[in-house]
Structure formats: C-alpha cells, structure tokens
Amino acid sequence: MKKPTIVLLILASILLNALPATAEFVLEIYGNANMDDTIDQDDIEYVQGIINGVNDATDLADANYDGNINDLDIAQIDLIIKGEEKNITVIQNLKTSKEINITKTPATLNMPIKSIAALSGTYGPYMLCAIGDSDLIVAILSGAVERGEIRDIMKDKTIVGTSNDDWDMETILEIKPDLVLGYASFDLAEYRKILEPAGISLVQMNFNRPETYKSEVRTLGWILGKRDRAEELISFEDEHLNYITERTKDFKEEQKPKVYAETYRDNRYGGSSSSVGLAIGPCGGIDIFEDLGVSTDIDPEEVISQNPQVIIHMTAGNYMSDSGYDATNTSEMEKKIADIENRTGWDHIDAVKNGRVYVITSDAASIHPSIFHAYIAKCLHPEEFEDLDPVAVHQEWLQKFLGIEYKGVYAFPLP
C-alpha cells in the first residue's frame, strides 16, 4: 500500500472540518471529493476542478490514497461508481476507553469482499445479518453464538476467540478472510501488523454508537454493495430517534426527571458515554452522575442524597440469563428490582417510593439505538410518551431487518 505524504496525513487527522452546507454528514470514503453523502459524477468533476486549479483540495479527494491528486484519482472514482475498484480507503472512527475524542484514521481494504471474520463481539455479526450479508461471515468470536436473535445463523461459523484479547491468529490466517471487522473502541494495532502483510484487510467500526451510526452503516453499505439496505437502517433510526427528540427538546428543567443509571454491577455508574448515558439527555432526563464521565463505583449514600426520580439498572445475558431474546419470565428482573429497593436507606429515594426502578438489557441497545431510546423515553416520561410502544418498535425492527418475531423480555417493568 502506498504511503501518503505528511500533508495528507495532517489533512486526515483533521478530517471533515469544512462541510458543504447541503451535506447532512459526509460519506467517509476516499473518492468523495466534494465531501457530501455519496460518490458520483460530481466527485469526478470536483477533482478535475482541483487539477485545473479552480477547486480547493479536500480531505477525501485523493481517491487512490497515494498522496497526490491527479487523473489517477478520477480513474479510481470512476471504478468506485461502477463497483469495480480493486481497493478502497475508508475512515475509521477510533475511540478507545482511554480517549476522549474520536480519532479518524484511514484504512485501505482489498476489494471485492467475499468473506469476513466478524470479530467485533456481537455487534459486527448482528449488523452483517441486518444488512443482509450474513453469508459472508466465516469467523466470529464465541459471544456471537450466544446472541439469541442471530444464534441460528452463527451456529456453524468458525469461532476464533472469546474477546479482543485472544484472537486465534493462526486460524484466522488459515481461513484468510478478505476482511476482518473489529471494534473501533479497541487498539488492534498488533493484529493489524500480522493481518495486512498476509493480504487480509482490517477495518474497525462501532455500530452501537449513535454519534457514528450513520457514518459506519453507510460506509459498510458502500463497501459491501448494500447501499439501499444501509439507507433503510439509517432511515429507521432517524424516524424513531427524531420522534423522541422532537418531543423532548423543549422540556423545561423541572420536567426532566433525575436519573441514576447503574451499570451491570451494583452501585456502579455506567458512564456518560455508555448506551444508557447517551440516551438519558435526548430522552428528556438528567443524569445525576454525568460529570463523572467514566464508569465508576458509587457510594450508595451519594445516590440517596441525589434522590433520583428514576433508577435504571442495566443487565446482559452473562449477568442475568433470563433477559433479552431468550428470557422466558421476569423473575430475575423482579428480584433485581427488589434488591435495589431494599438497599439500606433507599426507601427514601423518590424512584423507589414511586415504583420507578427499571431493569433494561443492553441487547435492547445493540446496533439499534432507536429501540433503546424508545424504552428509556417510556420509562422517563410514560405520560408524554403514552402513544409510544417500545416493544412495537422493537418488533418492527426484528421483522424488517432479521425476519424474525419479537420474543423475550428486554425491559421490566414497562409503564
């Protein structure tokens, strides 16, 4: 792979600072020269304008990612439009747990992609199923088989590890997928050093983050030739998320309940960037520990002093077997709620006194933030969202994108 010039690397590091007024967001693929949401003939014309000295160079104009903008980029854009490119360079939105900001880092992928090791936990395989390319999956991590919604599809895939710390590189190299799909929230540099010399592309994406959802899904749709399906996924999110935010955007502070968002373990705050932390504000609530930022243990007395009106305890299959798609009853969730309500002194908290303690599984969030926001909005504002049925929204998504019926228990109790 050709190396870009220092100038281009600097441009990549400050990517997307100047967007056209008409662009909702930028398709983060090199070749999108005019920085809109697609790659088409307009990009060829824009690059020609750069060559002729009438257009300013943009971060994504170097379509073949060689550090120069010339006729070769026009040829590459033409190949991308036709779906005949031999490689394509995309932007990864990388952010580890130790970093505050997203780092935009290019990755060049060999094309076409006919096999994928989907190693981003359950989210990568889940998204590939939703976008309609589960047949491309040749390897997964063990957790994907445990995800009820896609278990039947994943049961015959090769397992090459249990987490991001123990990929079976020998088996991966033996299988030699065209692409390894990894989390954007982990440092996979050491794996990349092994994979790329072997001719295996690695791209890191997160499909569970509302702030990068559109970008990741649209990019995946482009590289897999599933653009229409990607737009359907994006439109679903937009429709349901906008429905919630439009209703809550003008709430006054006194209308917003104070919320204690507890992660999987007792007396531990989930963090402002967790799925529930990101949902509380848009759903019309106030996160009482938002200023702490990261996930951390909480003094129970501090929760009492803050007196939240709503308590949300997050769970998952490895913490509570009767939760999510495979749940057959609500007994475990009921027990957890009782445990929370019986904590010393918590009977004085408004959320406990008014029966507003909820248990929600992270499977409700997953790769569809709109569904999770629907559950949260219903818990925070049952009267304002009397017409909102989170289960119906969830059922619609499962039927439309996975072709399965809704079952199980994802949140309890529902107002």
Model description:
The chain has 415 residues and is an alpha/beta fold. The chain has 3 domains: 1-85, no CATH class; 91-225, Rossmann fold (3-Layer(aba) Sandwich), CATH 3.40.50; 234-412, Rossmann fold (3-Layer(aba) Sandwich). Helices cover 36% and strands 14% of the residues. The chain has helices spanning 6-13, 41-52, 71-82, 123-131, 143-146, 151-154, 169-175, 189-195, 213-224, 227-248, 275-280, 300-306, 331-341, 350-353, 369-380, 390-402, and strands spanning 87-94, 103-110, 116-118, 137-140, 158-159, 179-182, 201-204, 258-262, 268-269, 286-287, 296-297, 310-315, 357-361, 411-412. A 5-stranded parallel beta sheet has the order 5-4-3-6-7. Helix 8 (189-195) links the parallel strand 6 and strand 7. The longest helix is centred in the middle third of the chain and has 22 residues, at 227-248.
Fourth-level CATH superfamily of the largest domain: Nitrogenase molybdenum iron protein domain
Gross morphology = globular
What's the count of strands? 14
- CATH class type of the largest domain: Alpha Beta
Strand content: 5-15%
Q: Report the biggest beta sheet as strand number plus sense, adding barrel if it closes.
A: 5 strands, parallel
The proportion of residues forming helix, as a percent range, comes to: 25-40%
Order of helices and strands: HHHEEEHEHHEHEHEHHEEHEEHEHHEHHE
Can you list the strand order of the major beta sheet?
5-4-3-6-7
**SS-derived structural category:** alpha/beta
Overall radius of gyration: 23 Å
Query: How many domains make up the coordinates?
Result: 3
Q: Spans with pLDDT under 50 lasting ≥5 residues?
A: 1-22
Helix count from the secondary structure assignment = 16
CATH architecture of the largest domain: 3-Layer(aba) Sandwich
Mean pLDDT: 92
Distance between the termini: 55 Å
Fold-level CATH name of the largest domain = Rossmann fold
